[in-house]
Write a structure and sequence with these properties.
By secondary structure, this protein is of the alpha+beta class. It contains two helices and five strands. It has helices at 64-78, 96-105; strands spanning 41-45, 54-58, 82-85, 88-92, 112-114.
Amino acid sequence: MNRKKSKSSGGIVYSTSQDFKLTEEEEQERIIAPPAQQQLKVLLDRKQRGGKVVTLIEGLQLSDSDIDDMARQLKTHCGGGGSAKNGEIIIQGDHRDKIVQWLIKKGFSKTKRVS
């Protein structure tokens, strides 16, 4: 029988230490910079994808929920699939020009297209 470990206890189920006190770890938040100060790179990638092409957006300094929301909007704008992982947005296909124009419209003025 598997028991799920509680996130609030940090995975500790029992301690024999007399001085042990359960403390909650503070969640580290990303430093969120204004869109005009963020230097984004929009590039094409084929690595570990079976030869299929994806467009990557790197350098985002946003919260995870904002990155997910932006990924959803970009997928709709480009008409393709994709995801948001590890602070990057992945859009299926070569949509570099479309994405750079969309990001500049949204205020990310330091966006660069990388070949």
